[in-house]
Design goal:
Rossmann fold; 2 domains; six-stranded parallel β-sheet; elongated
């Protein structure tokens, strides 16, 4: 799958496509249903299937304090979209300059002149352009004028519950990882490159792999029983997601202790799937008390993962 980063990288060979636009946060089953239709339509029309996303997401620019927790970063979306057969991912830098595009400019200059869209799939609540004045009715009118088809996505339901990124976040907030997995079509995971930490864990026999959470907010917080994918190997472990208050941590990160594992993971990408929550993150009066709790957490995680 081709990744086009920024409008300045759109070339003449990118003209002509079947396009869908959205956040696709989590790439859940609702998204997957839409994307499969996009892929199928693109094949029938002999055109590349293309997904447009924005980085950062609009609310992260305008109201960062109120922005929802991210389920997936761009790398996660790329992985999931590629697996679904999407041909191109266009990542648009969402800044004040782009936000100032008029709705007409967005359609006629970007979608039509630059991308040459032939078929557009968006939600019927999709809004665009400066002041969010563009809507589905405007897209339909522009489609007739500029000769491209516009269709609306339909709500995708699981047991009469609308699948949405908000519903997935709510399930995670309620520690209902089974429901989150049903809506995502896979376990909720956090993936990233292992970074060097302060190496306190190895002094007490609990070395950890550390992932910096490059999110405005993390969708989960606490201590979890987890399954870890290292290259193609599956391992079990216990993870803490948060700010590490006992050691006065400042950055939100994931620390995972992998059971019965030895080796150097620095610089490698690993994937951590959350299976069950053990407890909330908390501050301890001493590092020794934290050590004692980590031992209990590890035993709890092993018990929870015994049948995995």
């Amino acid at each position: 799958m081709e990744l086009i980063r920024g409008l300045h990288n759109i070339r003449e060979q990118h003209r002509g496509c079947v396009l869908t636009i959205g956040k696709f946060d989590g790439v859940h089953l609702g998204h997957q249903a839409v994307l499969s239709q996009v892929v199928e339509k693109a094949k029938k029309m002999g055109l590349p299937s293309t997904v447009m996303v924005f980085e950062p997401q609009p609310e992260e620019l305008f109201t960062p304090e109120q922005a929802p927790a991210r389920l997936s970063l761009l790398r996660d979306k790329y992985t999931q979209l590629k697996a679904l057969g999407i041909d191109r991912l266009l990542c648009v830098k969402f800044d004040q300059h782009f936000a100032a595009f008029s709705a007409t400019d967005f359609v006629e200059n970007l979608l039509v002149a630059q991308l040459g869209i032939q078929y557009l799939v968006v939600g019927d609540d999709f809004r665009f352009g400066k002041g969010r004045v563009g809507d589905f009715a405007m897209l339909e009118a522009e489609g007739k004028k500029c000769q491209f088809d516009v269709v609306s996505t339909q709500s995708f339901r699981l047991e009469n519950c609308r699948i949405s990124s908000t519903a997935v976040r709510d399930a995670l907030h309620q520690d209902d990882f089974n429901l989150a997995q049903q809506m995502l079509g896979r376990p909720f995971t956090i993936a990233g490159k292992v970074l060097h930490g302060d190496k306190r864990g190895r002094t007490i026999g609990f070395p950890t792999a550390n992932l910096l959470l490059k999110r405005c907010k993390a969708p989960v917080n606490g201590v979890f029983a987890v399954m870890i994918t290292v290259k193609d190997k599956q391992c079990s472990g216990v993870a803490n997601i948060g700010h590490r208050p006992t050691v006065n941590g400042q950055r939100s990160q994931l620390e995972v202790h992998i059971f019965d594992f030895s080796g150097d993971l620095y610089g490698q990408f690993i994937s951590v799937a959350l299976v069950s929550k053990i407890r909330q993150e908390m501050k301890f009066d001493s590092f020794e008390l934290l050590h004692q709790q980590i031992q209990k957490d590890a035993l709890a995680a092993k018990a929870l993962l015994a049948n995995c």
